[in-house]
Amino acid sequence: MNEIIEKSHFSEKVVKLTVKAPDIAKARRPGHFVIVRTGDNGERIPLTIADADTASGTITLVVQDIGASTHLICGLEAGESLTDVVGPLGRATDIRNVGTVVCCGGGVGVAPLLPIIKAMKEAGNRVISVLAARNKDLIILEDQVRQWSDEVIIMTDDGSAGTKGLVTDGVETVIRREHVDEVVTIGPAVMMKFVALLTKKYNVPTICSLNTIMVDGTGMCGACRVTVGGKMRFVCVDGPEFDAHQVDFDEMLMRMKAYN
Amino acid sequence: MKDNTDQKTSRDAAWRVELREAITARERTSIPRATMPMLDAAARVHNNEEVNRGLDAVQAVTEATRCLDCPDPQCVTGCPVGIDIPGFIKNIQRGDFAAAASVLRATSALPAVCGRVCPQEKQCESRCLYNKMKKPAVAIGWLERFAADTERLSGRRAPVEKAPRRNIKIAIAGSGPAGLACAGDMIKLGYDVTVFEALHEIGGVLKYGIPEFRLPNAVVDAELDSLRQLGVEFRKDCVIGRTLSYEDLLNEGFRAVFVASGAGLPRFMGIPGENLIGVMSSNEYLTRINLMGAGRGGMTPVCTGRRVAVVGGGNTAMDSVRTARRMGAERAMIVYRRSEAEMPARAEEVAHAKEEGVEFLTLCNPIEYRGDERGHVRSMIVQRMELGEPGPDGRRSPVAIPGATDEIEVDEVIVSVGVSPNPLIPDSIAGLEVSRRGTITVNDDMQSSIPAIFAGGDIVRGGATVILAMGDGRKAAAAIHHYLSTGM
Predict the structure, then answer these.
(1) What is the ipTM score, two decimals?
(2) Do B275 and A255 touch (CB under 8 A)?
(3) For chain B, percent helix, then strand, then coil, each to nearest 5?
């Protein structure tokens, strides 16, 4: 169970794992996440499912080495196993043909964005993807994103690939150029906050996918609670996707520092 | 086999008549109730060991002697699973502890657990004849624990009668008390039982919720092992309604499902500052510590405050506040909006908490939390309350005293004001009837609106005790057996 079938590196700190999990592969939809635990003393951490293959019974996880637990996961090799993988959790993305959709992802957020890009395209939408990272080496999954997008815009902080600038610059260019029906954004909380501020200005409906602190991931603990439209919501069972214009990102950013 | 059971349990068995006639009722009733040996309060707040150490054999036999072996024992009517209480107690008195354990096992899958966490003072012991004599009831819970512990420590478990295998598969969603009780009965009835658990540990609230100092994991694990030995299969990391749907279970050949998915979403009060760092649900606090080992070698972190307020007056609140003391809180407080008399927690837990230096701020209701510039909670504003008229549940409802508020310094707040049902399973099964509160609607046989789905425990009750959940599990097992035998 939970054996790592394949491991590859997107960059020094970003790893792609293909994990044997047949039931999850079969049940998952774009937007779902899993809770992963490594070692008998390990933490339970949420990771969004980047892809799945029902034929081989595997799911794909993209993990950035940013803390003790992700460091352990990134250190595992093919043939080794994750101690626990449970899911798929959360609500699946609402995929409809709305017209033109801008999908914007930052850093490893592009991994969970990919299945949404694919599903949006398959649903008949015109899909414009905006991928952003600090530099060229940190842009991941560009080829796969191109395969399912009508247009791809690359933004880097240092201009080493695509256009120099932030993800919001890329999104704004599109919104100013043509009518956009919906924006989907996945990435660091602070990035999603600024995407939401931008699209609110232009009145473009926007979906974000939140990755808060969680323990059980099934609604039991409430660690993942966020304020959306003035109401308390649990990311694990009510989300992870919410109307980005309603999310209190400042509170979420504060709560994410609980254990820093 | 039947004669053997009768010899163990019949009130008319020769040995039992002899025990009754051996000493007079006056002599029996003059024996003082046993006192539970306990860890010293000052020492125990520095460790996580079980507080109640259990009666020794001499104490247990003496306590069992107190039992009058009533012809119409009312204690049994106070037990949600109908344990033959005089039957096991009299076996203790005659020194046949193994027989006492097997009497318990006939009706309870988890006697060592119930002996520790049941609110006996509100159930069996409240009906004991001694109460009428203004004397303390027979310590039924402690005797139950004694018999179960003695059996476990002997390493010899009484053989369980099992019906021939039927080759009919039953799925149970959730491995807490309701699920385990149902599993225990279904496997004895000859069914193939698989228990699915969402977490990475089997045991549900017995593992993530109730702390080691009240219910050691080793006790739970021993009960799980005996279910495994009987043939119950456990599958962890599997969320019914997510990993496997109801249709998947049917496709895998399961003929009935018992949903015992337990308490779900923790409730918050909706007051300002409740999302500050350091304010969390008791579910989160206890899960981090009990299940994940936070602060005890686990990688999972947990906030540890010097001044900890626990909001609520139930057993979970007591578990949380006593855990906080053990995690190093200098000031650990219960903040409760009614008075101590209305507290739903067991009297024993309240007493233990007080011995451990927990402060009780009763008639206090939090109305706001205030934090520092980094978003960490630093104080709470409480509204002083007084008791008004009794509410629909008979408890006097608290009313705010205008203008009477206080600010209390805190650096951690644990909100323990109940839970709402978990929506995962109800949301995933089309046509499953749920109440307005989100609990699964069942008939008297624990059967839902879908005939092959039964449900019990907190997903039906909203929030209850271990023993009521177990009672549901047993009732459901009987009903599932009836349903599969008759198709009704």
Answers:
(1) 0.94
(2) yes
(3) 40, 20, 40
